[in-house]
Amino acid sequence: MEPRTCAAHRFASPASGHGTVLSSRLLPRLIWSRSTRCAASSLRGSVARRRSRFSTLMTTAYNTGSPDLVDFNWDDLGFQLVPTDFMYLMRCSSDGVFTKGELVPYGPIELNPAAAVLNYGQGLLEGLRAHRKGDGSILLFRPQENALRMRIGADRLCMPAPSVEQFLEAVKLTVLANKRWVPPTGKGSLYIRPQLIGSGAILGVAPAPEYTFIVFVCPVGHYFKDGLSPISLLTEEEYHRAAPGGTGDIKTIGNYASVVSAQRRAREKGHSDVLYLDPVHNKFVEEVSSCNIFMVKGNVISTPLLTGTILPGITRKSVIGIAQNLGFQVEERNITIDELLGADEVFCTGTAVVLSPVGTITYRERKVEYGKNQEAGVVSQQLYAAFTAIQKGLLEDSMGWTLQLN
């Protein structure tokens, strides 16, 4: 039994052969006009039959405004969950073929307690952003890279994955269905979270018999509470984020649960996040909890070499390309903690943090400060400006990285 939307129409990929396909012009207006009725609708299949009280109240509380923009206090937007209108679901069975993807009202999904994702962590996630331009159109940033990275991770975890085309179609439909939740220009962005989980029930350690692909979205502001102010990192020596031969280079869900303890300890001491070292020698820099790290020394920008324990970040890859175009020498190599402490500037990159300058790093009770008066370094500012200008459509995208949704 498959889930369905509460509206009379179903929204599906043209390639799926199921449901009614609406134009991008009609879709947001239709969804807005029906969103109040959808808030309490029942769903079939693995979608919960009644949305949680919290989700329903949150959605209806902001169910005002216009078809293009919800009535919301955008100035107070941080990085926390704000339930939106719709999410996307698509399933596949043991044949490995994903079909019948469709939009359903945002809310809980139903899982068997024996689901592989709950028992054995067979799951992946992705993250990307959508920005609203001044003309009202919406830009996605390098979504093909996310689709490809999910497929690489799925292969590592013995999971079938949506094709690149299916991934892109799901992201586009979900963003357009929630268009009114894309913040106004300059007020934030729409964070897009694709997930691939082993939803089928299984008792032994083995690939799941069924998989579910999910896409939900949420408007967000800055990841760190102080916005673009330089952050403080605490170097971790007891715990390690990943090990050689493990899964540190894919976005499996288990990679993030393992950093919470060290991250909490760091924040209790007044730091923003944790800097991890390699698990073999305990001296080479790897990455921060959820982002890559760079150092600047003169005209040289260096970042840790991808050796299988570090996530190949899409923002990381983009910043490398931008830096090279700006005339910087970029090196991907092993970087010792001592080298990092002697850098002119240090910054982090990631979908959530974008490009965040580092103000201090603490290592074995030694605290090193970068820059003056807790301000971002010149190179960090230059790279941030160049990167976000492309991401937000403020400059011509000569790299071909953005995808516009009209």
From TrEMBL:
GO terms for molecular function: branched-chain-amino-acid transaminase activity. Its EC number is 2.6.1.42. It catalyses: L-valine + 2-oxoglutarate = 3-methyl-2-oxobutanoate + L-glutamate; L-isoleucine + 2-oxoglutarate = (S)-3-methyl-2-oxopentanoate + L-glutamate; L-leucine + 2-oxoglutarate = 4-methyl-2-oxopentanoate + L-glutamate. The keyword Hydrolase does not apply. Pfam families: Aminotran_4. It comes from the Eukaryota. One of its GO terms (biological process) is branched-chain amino acid biosynthetic process. This is Branched-chain-amino-acid aminotransferase. It comes from Urochloa decumbens.
